[in-house]
Structures are given as structure tokens and as C-alpha cells.
């Protein structure tokens, strides 16, 4: 007999069934929120994985197309690899869960969330986040939960808890906040220039709801929770730390890590490690964990320097940004390019423009998002960190960074009516030493402007870090963290936005949450840094979007036609539109509302295509004059093509003022002639006259 628990959440009922399905998993929660159904499971291996120095957590979010009554597209009619949306959702679940597992736990853990039904009123992502927390909390897997997650939207300035898919489509804010019992543990946001104060209000409105959900989860755990199993700890022995400090003193380690050059610091640590390996050559047990021990020694040293001495490894002040540089047009012939450098972090972004038809089609569970015209892709090759490994395509990190930059820039893009282009930006990481995702936002903004994309405002991004002490009020927030500070610190708080507000947030932490003062200080410091980057670097490099698109970019003109005339332009089986394309060499896209985009590089041919389309959709009246080509000659007259696929007939009596016996005496195939519309003949065809064209029109 299974147990069922329910609570009211944002006006809808959340129900959790325990011991109903998947009983062989360590923990399973069968989640219902409205008609949305998600099965969340938590499973751990019996033994730790050997030879690793990290916690092997895997989070999966499986989108089943039957959940929305669809059969998967393509030749293979079953779900394939995870979509980008599924990967991003997995990352959002992973980020608040990971810090709550023991740091020395090495057993493989998989959190699986299978979306089985989707109710447009109840977002399955929220259900999966809560399901993962509940399944892990009731399992025997060591976990310092629970945590809970809530989404917040904003329409006309009003905050909405767990908005529906329809509300999300028109919301100015898409915020996800995860919390533990006491603190906020994860923030993910996309926003339409939301002011900092409003963002903070939204974050803690979600935190308040999360605390109510945690009280609900506590009841389930008290009733159904299993005792947590013991595990083999992989912690470094304290005796090893003591011995290391005798060989490499804390002062020597501080000198080793105190450098603004990554390669110098890594060489120093390599020498320190070699010295310790030589000293412990006879102790195989210590040698096996020496790498982790050196990492921990560095971490303690860096954290002590920052927190107690207010010294950063590269000598900067706490709020100081690394040296910045920006330039545009570094790559010829592409449609737009820009490079942004911050210390040893360097990103080059390339912009490509194309017709709207080349936008990305999406096949997922969200019925309100079937495609997108702006795509941001982020690449992180191994040479950017001085390593060597083959490229295997983008991983989850690259997909996540690309999505974050895309989210930051979408709010400032022009509408399709203003700028009828599909837009792709690709950020290539040339060098990495902290916060490349935010550098890619800066480079992408400048690249878009260099390409002539009329963005409304420039966007910049920056990241803050954190080092905490023993108490909640013992902490320090660092502006513009480099790789080492991210690696050994407690937080990577990324914020992007314009002068007027926030467009994206992503917060990753390694501790059990942040207090409100920390979050408020981080948001304030990122705003200050963002203003500096925009004003002193980016806007001095390129003040605004260029007036025209790059000479190598396609030119696009958009006209509107009566939607009822779309069939006339397309023609039977596409005959008419293909004839226009073949003759002019342009690309033509037509939307259901009658928006016609003509794309090409030759303005003369584009004008010709526009003329043809406008001619085709014109309601023909007597007296209209056209220029056409003789395409067929009969005994009774000639057919004149006045637009591709569109013909009218000139009767033999209307060809010349004098009587003629044969059409061929006056006209030959291919002749270009001017004709005047005489209306329609008895067969409904356009009737033309050549002889009645006014003299001043000939």
C-alpha cells in the first residue's frame, strides 16, 4: 500500500506518492502537480568508484514526447539524446543538490526525472526539482537536505509564483530559486531589464514559498524516510596535513599561489607537489591521496589570504576588475566580430546573419516555444587552459554557458519586424581563467553591434565570488573572480545586464546557501562592475550598432501582403515562388500573417523580386500597365508573362493598330513588351492590349 501526500502550491495541488512505483530505487517520488506527472528517482551504487577525487553525481531530465501527445520527429521514432532544454533543466537541478551531498562521498549517484505528462498550467521543471529533493531525502543516500525550488514570473510588475506556460511566454522575468531550510542555495534568471531591487524582492518571495515546501517535505521524510547508510570516507588524514606543513610551510605555499599568471602558479604548485612526493616516497597510503591533499592545502591557503588578510592571489583589491580590453572587426569577411579580454580570460565572438527561415526549430514539451531566431553557441577548446584533449562536441557546461549568454542578450534584440534576420553568435574561448561566460556576453554585444544588429542597449556580464568563515557574518565578496578564486571559493555569482537592469543571473555555490546580505552585496557589486565595463571599455570600443549590416551579410527587405494572397505568390506546388527565386537568386520566406522577407546580396535582383510579388498580389484593374515577356504564341494571340507564373493574353486584334494576319509578324518568343490591362476575358484570364498602351508609357 502506497502513501500519498498533498499540499496547495500556487493555487494548484501538489501530490507526492511514495512506495507506489520504482521500489527498487533507493528513493522514488511519483509527483503530480495538476495534470503534470514526473517520476523522480534517486539511486546510489553500493561501493565508491575507485580512482576519483570528486563526487560522481549524474542528474537526468527525460522528456517523453507522449507527455504532450506527440510522436518524436525524424526517421527514428523514439526519443534520442537529451535536448538542450533537458540538459539545462538537469543543470538547474544539479546545482542546488550537489552541495548538500557529503564532500568525501565517492559512490555514484543518479537522480532521474522522467516527465510523463505535461499540464500547461504546471511546469514540469519545478516538479522534477522537487521530486529529486524528495526522492533523495527519503532514500538511504547521505544528503543534508531537503531543498526546494520555486519559479517566479512577472507581468505588469506583479510577481507570479510558478507561472503557467502561457504566463511564462509573456513574462518579463523567468526566475528559479532553490533554498534550504535557512538559506538560498541556487538562483537562475532571465529578465527583461528588471531593476536590482525588484530582483531581490522576487528572489526572497520564492525563498518564502520554498520554506513552506520544505515543511511539507519534512513531514514526508518523518513518515517514510530511510536511515542514511554509512560510507567509506575519502577525507585526507589530518596527520598528512601536519607532515606537509613541516615540508612546505604555510608561508611557502602562500608564495606559490600568489601570482596573477596562471602558468606561473601551476608551475609553482607542480614543484611543491614534486617536493612532497619525494618526501613521502615510502608512504604509499599518503601518496595515493597526495593530489587531493595539495588541493586542500592550496584551498585553505587561498581562503585564509582572502578572508583574513584581504589579499587576492593576483594582488588585486577586493572590488578591482582585472585589466580589460575590447576590439571589433578582428576577423574579416564574417558579418560581425569582436574580442573581449579580462586578464587571462579572452573571448572572440562571431555574428552571422541569415533569413528567418534559418532559425532553429525546437521539438520539445513547451508548446509556446516552437522555434527561435537568436542562437548563441559557446565553445571551450582545451588549448584555452593549456591542456590537450580531442574535441568531442559541446558538453553540458558549454551548452549551459551558451544558454546563459543567449538569455542575457535576448531582451535587447530588435523585433522580427524591425530586423527580419535569424541571428547566430558563436563565442570562441581563446584563453580561460575565470568567468568566460560573462566575457562571452560582452564580446557578443560588441559583435552584434559591429554586424549592424540594432540592439536596444549594450549588455555586459561580470561574476562575483565569495569566501566564508565560521559564522554567517564572516564572509567577503570578491568582484571579478579568476579561476583559482572560483575553484577554491564558495560561490560563482554571475550577473548580466544593461545600465538599466538585469537580464540574466546564474548562481553556483559549494556551501549550504547564502544569506540575504550576501546576495544583496553580490548584486550591488556586479552592478557597479557592469557599469564600469559598459562605460569605460565596451562603449569606448563601439558606441552603438552600425547603421547598416556588414557588406558580406545578406540584405533582407520585408513587405506585407494580404494573407489570402499567399497562395497566389506560392503558386501551384510552389511553381510561382520557385520561378521568382530561380530568376532573381534571392531567398523568400513567407509567414502565415503575410510577412514576406526577401533576402539577397544583389539589391537590383531583390527589387525585381519585390516588384514581382507586389504585381502578383495586386488586385488587377482596367488601365493598369505592366511590362511582360512573350512566353507563348497561338493563332489567336500571345500569352504575356508579367510576373513569374502569372500570365495574361493579348488577342491578335489587340497587338497592333493596323490589322495583322499572323502574330509572328509582330511578336517573337522572349520579346519584352508593355501591356495595359483590359480586365478579364470570358475564361477568367487576364486580358491585355499592346496597341492601347498610351504613347507616353511606351
Automatic annotation (TrEMBL):
<protein>
    <recommendedName>
        <fullName>Polyribonucleotide nucleotidyltransferase</fullName>
        <ecNumber>2.7.7.8</ecNumber>
    </recommendedName>
</protein>
<dbReference type="InterPro" id="IPR015848">
    <property type="entry name" value="PNPase_PH_RNA-bd_bac/org-type"/>
</dbReference>
<dbReference type="InterPro" id="IPR012340">
    <property type="entry name" value="NA-bd_OB-fold"/>
</dbReference>
<comment type="function">
    <text>Involved in mRNA degradation. Catalyzes the phosphorolysis of single-stranded polyribonucleotides processively in the 3'- to 5'-direction.</text>
</comment>
<dbReference type="GO" id="GO:0005829">
    <property type="term" value="C:cytosol"/>
</dbReference>
<dbReference type="Pfam" id="PF00013">
    <property type="entry name" value="KH_1"/>
</dbReference>
<dbReference type="InterPro" id="IPR036345">
    <property type="entry name" value="ExoRNase_PH_dom2_sf"/>
</dbReference>
<dbReference type="GO" id="GO:0006402">
    <property type="term" value="P:mRNA catabolic process"/>
</dbReference>
<dbReference type="InterPro" id="IPR015847">
    <property type="entry name" value="ExoRNase_PH_dom2"/>
</dbReference>
<dbReference type="GO" id="GO:0006355">
    <property type="term" value="P:regulation of DNA-templated transcription"/>
</dbReference>
<keyword id="KW-0460">Magnesium</keyword>
<dbReference type="GO" id="GO:0000175">
    <property type="term" value="F:3'-5'-RNA exonuclease activity"/>
</dbReference>
<feature type="binding site">
    <location>
        <position position="492"/>
    </location>
    <ligand>
        <name>Mg(2+)</name>
    </ligand>
</feature>
<keyword id="KW-0808">Transferase</keyword>
<dbReference type="GO" id="GO:0004654">
    <property type="term" value="F:polyribonucleotide nucleotidyltransferase activity"/>
</dbReference>
<dbReference type="InterPro" id="IPR012162">
    <property type="entry name" value="PNPase"/>
</dbReference>
<feature type="domain" description="KIX">
    <location>
        <begin position="223"/>
        <end position="302"/>
    </location>
</feature>
<dbReference type="InterPro" id="IPR001247">
    <property type="entry name" value="ExoRNase_PH_dom1"/>
</dbReference>
<dbReference type="InterPro" id="IPR004088">
    <property type="entry name" value="KH_dom_type_1"/>
</dbReference>
<keyword id="KW-0963">Cytoplasm</keyword>
<feature type="domain" description="S1 motif">
    <location>
        <begin position="623"/>
        <end position="691"/>
    </location>
</feature>
<dbReference type="InterPro" id="IPR003101">
    <property type="entry name" value="KIX_dom"/>
</dbReference>
<dbReference type="InterPro" id="IPR036456">
    <property type="entry name" value="PNPase_PH_RNA-bd_sf"/>
</dbReference>
<dbReference type="InterPro" id="IPR027408">
    <property type="entry name" value="PNPase/RNase_PH_dom_sf"/>
</dbReference>
<keyword id="KW-0479">Metal-binding</keyword>
<dbReference type="InterPro" id="IPR003029">
    <property type="entry name" value="S1_domain"/>
</dbReference>
<dbReference type="GO" id="GO:0006396">
    <property type="term" value="P:RNA processing"/>
</dbReference>
<keyword id="KW-0548">Nucleotidyltransferase</keyword>
<dbReference type="InterPro" id="IPR036612">
    <property type="entry name" value="KH_dom_type_1_sf"/>
</dbReference>
<dbReference type="InterPro" id="IPR020568">
    <property type="entry name" value="Ribosomal_Su5_D2-typ_SF"/>
</dbReference>
<dbReference type="GO" id="GO:0000287">
    <property type="term" value="F:magnesium ion binding"/>
</dbReference>
<dbReference type="Pfam" id="PF03725">
    <property type="entry name" value="RNase_PH_C"/>
</dbReference>
<dbReference type="Pfam" id="PF03726">
    <property type="entry name" value="PNPase"/>
</dbReference>
<dbReference type="Pfam" id="PF01138">
    <property type="entry name" value="RNase_PH"/>
</dbReference>
<dbReference type="InterPro" id="IPR004087">
    <property type="entry name" value="KH_dom"/>
</dbReference>
<dbReference type="GO" id="GO:0003723">
    <property type="term" value="F:RNA binding"/>
</dbReference>
<comment type="similarity">
    <text>Belongs to the polyribonucleotide nucleotidyltransferase family.</text>
</comment>
<dbReference type="GO" id="GO:0003712">
    <property type="term" value="F:transcription coregulator activity"/>
</dbReference>
<feature type="binding site">
    <location>
        <position position="486"/>
    </location>
    <ligand>
        <name>Mg(2+)</name>
    </ligand>
</feature>
<dbReference type="Pfam" id="PF00575">
    <property type="entry name" value="S1"/>
</dbReference>
<keyword id="KW-0694">RNA-binding</keyword>
